[in-house]
Write a structure and sequence with these properties.
The protein is mainly α. Helix content is 85%, strand content 0%.
């Protein structure tokens, strides 16, 4: 039979892996959103320019 501590340790490792994965996803989304915001400012400046 397994001990209760073994199971709690496995659960803790699984939560740590999921937390790290979610943190990575959040970091990637932050990078993508900042790039999109930076490019949208550039696009609106180009569209609003007084170029003949």
């Amino acid at each position: 039979m397994r001990k209760l501590g073994d199971r709690a340790g496995q659960t803790l490792v699984e939560y740590a892996i999921v937390f790290a994965a979610l943190l990575g996803v959040a970091a990637v989304l932050t990078c993508l959103l900042s790039a999109a915001k930076r490019d949208s400012v550039r696009t609106s400046a180009l569209v609003g320019s007084e170029y003949p």
